[in-house]
Amino acid sequence: MLYNEPSPLETKVLTRRFGMERSAAIETYLATDGYRAFQKAAGMTPDEVINEVKASNLRGRGGAGFPTGMKWSFVPRTSPKPKYIVVNGDEGEPGTCKDRLLIESDPHQLIEGVLIAGLAVDAHKGWIYIRGEYRYLIDIMDRAIAEAYAGGWLGKNIQGTGFDFDLYTHTGAGSYECGEESALLESLEGKRGVPRIRPPFPAVAGAFQSPTVLNNVETFCAAPSIILNGGAAFAALGIPKAGGTKMTCLSGHINKPGVYELRLGFPVKQMIEEVGGGIRNGKKLKAFIPGGSSCPVLTAAECEGATMDYDSMAQRKTMLGSGGVIVMDEDTCMVKACMRLMKFYAHESCGWCIPCREGTTWLNKIMTRVHAGGGTEADIGLLGDIAKNMLGRTFCPLGDAAAMPMISFVEKFRQEFEDHLHGRPCPFEHSGVGVTA
Amino acid sequence: MTFSPQLEARFAKLLESYPAGRERAAMIPMLLYAQDELGAVTDELVAEVARRVGVTPLQVNEVVSYYTMLHRQPRGKYHVQVCTNISCLLRDGDQLLEHTCKKLGIGNHGVTEDGEFSVEEVECMGACSWAPAIQINYDFHHDVTPEKLDRLLDGLRKKR
C-alpha cells in the first residue's frame, strides 16, 4: 500500500512498483522485468558485476555512504571460508522510514539485489536482519522468500545457472545499536549487540567470522536496476560523485510528510517547498536535519543553495546520512528537540565503551536540567566539552552520532540555550505548535 | 517445555538457518517468537532455549537483558507503544503519551489491573513520516490523534 501520495518530482527507480496491485507478489515482479538482472548478472564474471556497481557510483544508503562496488571488491574471493550476504534492515535512525516501504512493496527486488551481490562475491547464503518491531515485514519477506524458492529463484542451481543461494530472515529484538554493522553481526550470532573492534572489517571477517557483504536494504535494492540498465544509466540520475536516487523521508513540520525517491543532488529548498508542500501552518523554516538524528542540524540560512547529496552536505559539515529529513519550524524549541535526542542516545548506548556510555548519560542529564530551567552558563560549555571528548573516541559511531548533533545544536542555537538558564521557563512552552505546545 | 506446533516448526527452521555449530544464532528469534506465545520470557523458557541452542542459561539471560523487546514480566494483552522521538515529538507525540497514560490510568511501563493494557514510551519505530505513531503489539497506527487513540482503545476494550 501507499502511505503518501507520490510527488511528480520523484525519480522512480527503486519505487517504480510501488502502488501496483499486489506489488509484493512474485508474478507482479516477474511481469515487470523482475529477476532479469539476476539472469544478466549470472552471465557476467564477478569482476564485471562489481565493475558495473562501481560505475553506478552507488554509495551505501544506510548512512555511512561508503562506495558499494568498492565494499564488494574487498571480499577476498580466494578465501577458503564460505562467504555470506547480510542485509541490514534494522532501520532505527530517528527520521528514517524507507526500508520499511521497500520491503513491504517490493520484497523481490531486495532478494534479487542479494542474489546479484552473491554472484559478485561467490556467496551462497544470506540473512535479512529486520528489526523486531517490523514483524509484519518479516512475514512479507518470508512469503516472498517462499515464493522465490517455489519459482526456482532461490535454492539449488537457480534457473539452471549452476548458482546456489539460500536466504533467511532474522529478527532483531529492539536495539538501535544493532543497526551498526558489527553490532548487527554480533546480534545475528545470538549475542548482545556490542560492536566489534575493526579491523578486521566484515568483508574479511563478518558473519560467523567469514567474509561478508553487509549493506543496507536500499543499497541492495538498487543493484537490479544497475545491472539491468547499466551502471552508467544509474550514475546519470545523480551527480558526478554520487549516482542514482535516494529514498528521502520527510517528517516534522511539513505539509506533505512522506517517503519520496529523489535523484541525488535534489535542491533542498525545492524538496521542502515543492515535494513536501512547504512548512505547515504557513510558518517559517527554522532548522533542518538532513539525514537522520545523528547528522548535525542545519539552520534555514544554511539550506540556501544546498542540495541533497554527500558533498553538498559535507561542505556544510553535516551528512546525507540515511535520508531522514527532519523539518523544524520557527516555533520549535531547539533545546527540547536536542534534549529528546540525547535521551535517545543515552537509552541506546550499548554501554560497552566508557566515552559513549558516560558521555551520552551526562549529555542527557545536563540537557534535561537545562530544559527544565535548572542550568547555568557553565552547563552550555560542559555540553560542548563532553561532546567533543566523545568524538572519535568510541568503539562505534554511536558516540559520534550523539556528539555531532549536540555540538551543532549548541553552536547554532546557543541563544535558545541561554534563554533557558536560571529558572526561566521554556520560552516556547506556550506557542501552541508542535514540539512546543 | 512444550510449544505450539507452529512455534516448534519455526524453531526447527531457525535451527537449520545458520552454519553448523552456530545454533546460538537462533537464540534471539526463538526468544522473541516464544515470548509472543507465552507473554514473557520465563525462567523455564530461558533454560529451554539455552538447552536447544547449546549455551548456559546465564548466556541467554545476558542477551535478554540487552534487548528492549524481550521482557521478563508479562505486559498487557494490548501493549501500547507510543513513540516520542524527534519526528513524533514535532507532531505532539509526547502529549499523545500523556493522553494514553491518563486514558488508561497507568504510568509509563504500567499495566492495567485487569491485565488488558500496558503502556511504553518507545524510541523511533520507523514511522517518522506518519507521525505521531504508535504500535499496539505489532500493529502500526499512523497519524494518531488523541481522538483516534480513544477510538482504538475503546474498540479493543469491547473485544473482550
CATH topology of the largest domain in chain A: Rossmann fold
The biggest beta sheet of chain B, please? 4 strands, mixed
Low-confidence stretches of chain A: none
Shape of chain B: elongated
Mean of all residue-level pLDDT scores of chain B: 96
Terminal CA distance of chain A reads 32 Å
Count every beta strand of chain A, where a strand is a DSSP E run of 2 or more residues. 11
Features:
heterodimer, A: 437 residues, alpha/beta, Rossmann fold, Ubiquitin-like (UB roll), de novo design (two linked rop proteins), 3 domains, five-stranded mixed beta sheet, four-stranded parallel beta sheet, 18 helices, B: 160 residues, alpha+beta, Arc Repressor Mutant, subunit A, Glutaredoxin, four-stranded mixed beta sheet
Descriptive report:
The complex is a heterodimer of chains A (437) and B (160). Chain A has 437 residues and is an alpha/beta fold. Chain A is 41% helix and 12% strand. Chain A folds into 3 domains: 26-235, NADH-ubiquinone oxidoreductase 51kDa subunit (Rossmann fold); 245-329, Ubiquitin-like (UB roll); 334-436, NADH-ubiquinone oxidoreductase 51kDa subunit, iron-sulphur binding domain (de novo design (two linked rop proteins), Up-down Bundle), CATH 1.20.1440.230. Chain B has 2 domains: 5-64, Arc Repressor Mutant, subunit A, CATH 1.10.10; 78-158, Glutaredoxin (3-Layer(aba) Sandwich), CATH 3.40.30.10. In chain B, 44% of the residues lie in helices and 11% in strands. The mean pLDDT of chain B is 96. The interface between A and B is large, with 63 and 45 residues.
